[in-house]
Recover the amino acids of this structure.
């Protein structure tokens, strides 16, 4: 169970947090003084700390410095009722995860604490690269028995403690983030922060601010200075996922950081010096993106100092049964099931499937199967219809698709993910139609759809669609 520590001298605030998280799987600790908070932090090592800036016995900023001496990996969220911008800026420079102003909004608090817990987990839960599934299923494991994954293990060992940029490539769902965490946890920076940014999930106009920060008034809505991830992660490791979706302007600024470890905040003139190791990941062929002018060649060379390529699950041979047994054991514990083994017929079905969604799809299938399972053995009848959804999606781009027929078919098969399946089906129909309307122009298509171009490219990849040179959008083979 994760632990959340709240340090605030207002009993009403402490009570509000206890009430806000009483239904969560969280152990919530409270303290009214810095001394009490520091003692609890020493004894319990909380996953996330929420800290008032103004405490009766010590300033919140000084307490942050002492907390970081205990463990620099625990995210700290500052709260204050005074709205002092200088305090917010100094807190973020010292490595605070976020800064909230009172009166607090419950939804915002839940969101920020949830993100901070996710970041804490990335830093503290072991990411193990092993030839066998470990007995402790509480770790996140990259099982690597097949020759291709053995090469990945060797690569992680060669470069983990070297302070160089690493580019991790592979299809969606192959475990790129796990490899990044393993590199971090075995590096010389393992005691420092680890932050992850999904470049495809953040609108292009906000990604530069997310990474490098901005000054007050830099753009509409910039009502105060923001400290970006490169400044916040000083002394640690920054993982840039889906880096192929980064805009040319942000690519240019990233190149300078990699070369000089210096940058300016958006709208500012002050040069910020930082010390951050960058790990990057992509499911794109960056060489093709460079040839097409979508990715800077000099940035590609700077990122490509050392590359780790992850194979798709279908090429990993005997890794599959090891992964199946590991996830069955792990998810059985999480879901309160008593499944101890997998029937040969079920394993045979899993072996014969191509796994286009890789390990992430395998995890989803096994969770669905365990929810239906009864008894100690996972039988073939508990497995969802492998490939049925993929086959339905493959038909989605065909004219005259009967959506009601698709829904009826999924209901008959006992689906438990109908909303997501229907949304994917709609995407497979909608996106090709819009792109045909724009003649393949993704910028115009994104505007019509009301999304960013990066989000559109991400969705095209997720749905297995491509835009070829004849301006047709087709399913990937």
């Amino acid at each position: 169970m994760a632990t959340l520590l709240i340090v605030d001298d207002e009993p009403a605030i402490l009570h509000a947090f206890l009430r806000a998280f009483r239904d969560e799987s969280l152990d919530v600790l409270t303290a009214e003084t810095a001394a009490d908070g520091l003692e609890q932090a020493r004894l319990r090592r909380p996953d996330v700390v929420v800290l008032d800036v103004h405490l009766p016995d010590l300033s919140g900023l000084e307490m942050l410095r002492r907390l970081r001496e205990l463990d620099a990996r625990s995210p700290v969220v500052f709260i204050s009722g005074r709205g002092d911008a200088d305090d917010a800026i100094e807190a973020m420079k010292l490595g605070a995860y976020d800064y909230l102003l009172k009166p607090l909004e419950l939804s915002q608090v839940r969101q920020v604490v949830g993100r901070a817990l996710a970041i804490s987990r990335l830093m503290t839960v072991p990411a193990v690269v092993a030839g066998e599934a470990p007995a402790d299923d509480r770790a996140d494991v990259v099982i690597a028995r097949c020759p291709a994954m053995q090469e990945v293990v060797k690569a992680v060992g060669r470069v983990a403690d070297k302070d160089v940029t690493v580019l991790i490539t592979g299809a969606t769902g192959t475990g790129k983030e796990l490899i990044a965490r393993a590199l971090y946890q075995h590096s010389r920076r393992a005691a420092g922060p680890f932050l992850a940014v999904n470049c495809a999930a953040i609108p292009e106009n906000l990604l530069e601010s997310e990474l490098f920060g901005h000054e007050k008034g830099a753009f509409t809505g910039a009502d105060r200075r923001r400290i970006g991830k490169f400044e916040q992660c000083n002394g640690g490791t920054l993982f840039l996922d889906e880096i192929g979706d980064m805009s040319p302007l942000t690519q240019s600024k990233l190149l300078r950081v990699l070369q000089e470890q210096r940058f300016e905040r958006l709208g500012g003139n002050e040069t910020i010096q930082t010390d951050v190791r960058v790990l990057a990941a992509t499911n794109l062929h960056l060489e093709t993106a460079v040839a097409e002018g979508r990715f800077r060649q000099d940035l590609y060379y700077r990122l490509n100092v050392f590359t780790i390529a992850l194979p798709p699950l279908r090429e990993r041979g005997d890794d599959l049964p090891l992964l199946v047994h590991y996830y069955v054991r792990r998810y059985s514990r999480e879901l309160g099931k008593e499944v101890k083994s997998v029937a040969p017929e079920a394993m045979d079905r899993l072996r014969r499937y191509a796994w286009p969604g890789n390990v992430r799809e395998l995890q989803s299938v096994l969770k669905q199967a365990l929810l239906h399972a009864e008894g100690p053995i996972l039988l073939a009848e508990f497995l969802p219809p492998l490939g049925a959804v993929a086959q339905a999606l493959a038909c989605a781009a065909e004219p005259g698709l009967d959506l009601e027929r698709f829904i009826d078919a999924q209901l008959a098969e006992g689906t438990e993910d109908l909303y997501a399946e229907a949304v994917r089906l709609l995407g497979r129909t909608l996106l090709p139609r819009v792109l045909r309307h724009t003649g393949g122009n993704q910028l115009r298509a994104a505007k019509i759809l009301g999304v960013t171009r990066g989000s559109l490219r991400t969705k095209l990849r997720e749905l297995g669609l491509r835009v070829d040179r004849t301006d047709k959008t087709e399913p990937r083979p």
Q: What stands out?
A: The first strand starts at residue 2 and ends at 7.
